[in-house]
Amino acid sequence: MINSGGITAVEVRNSSVIDFVFPNGFSFFEPYLQYFVRQTLGAGGEAYVSRTSEGTIVGIFLYDDAEKTGTIYTRSKETFDYFYELRPANFLFAELKTEHESEVYDIYTIDFENLAIVHRFSHEISIAEQGDIDEIGQFMASTHPGINRRWVNVAFKEGERCFFVRFGKEIAGLGWLSIVNGIGRLHSLHVKPQFRSIGIGEDILFARLLWLRSKRARSAFSEISRHNSASSRIAAKGRMTPSGTIFQYFKKDPGGKMDRKS
Question: Parallel, antiparallel, or unpaired: how do β-strands 91-94 and 69-74 relate?
Fold first, then answer.
């Protein structure tokens, strides 16, 4: 247990010990927070919860030491500052805008109620199975340098789906999705450079949207960097619209140099 300025922070070893009752407006990601904590711990990461002296949750911090990355969920600047310094990190995500240098990500959302999804596919879409885990892991490691390889196995265990397009024996592109509390999350879409501009990313998006619709998801969201114009265009084609923002913070080492990964 850590005490700082009236805020108590406790490391969490099991997501079931958190009551996950938050004050109004705590986070856009509230429906997913228990899932995120469980997934982080499953991949060997760390989770911390901060509370006021009255016991109200004011912050959650998830950290992956393998990747040196983390996410801070809080509306409190004091809590953000504490978690920002708690662990060494290449970068951190948070919904709170602060004075630190950051890159903006838009949260694209879609509501499935009364929405017709129509798309003509150009490529065959596959959904990864258990036997594809090693190949999917290799793809993720090559396209997301520094990724914690344990995450792929945890994602499959937690029921996430990976949709991919194969050209011959090679995976050309893939995208992940999860569904929690009737809400889908689309993430980690990546198409290899040599296979871009032929509709693979769009096909993978619509395949995931149709799958979520078939599972009676109410809505879905995706976090997309404003520098990623290709993914933003694909999301717009899927009738997803920006409805919020998060920020990726790039931390500096003690010498003042920006420790930033592309």
Answer: parallel
At 86, give phi and psi (nearest 5°): -70, -40
pLDDT tens-digit series, residues 222-232: 999 999 999 99
| DSSP secondary structure letter of residue 252 | B
Q: Which residues of 51-64 are buried (b: 16+ CB within 10 A; e: fewer)?
A: eeeeeebbbbbbbb
Report pTM.
Answer: 0.92
Q: With b meaning 16 or more CB within 10 Å and e meaning fewer, what string describes 238-252? A: bebeeeeebbbbbbe
Q: Which tokens sit at 100?
A: 């630190």
CATH number 3.40.630.30 given to 109-245 = yes
Residue with structure tokens 């700082």? 4
Locate the domains of the chain by residue range. 2-99, 109-245
Residue with token string 């995450």: 151
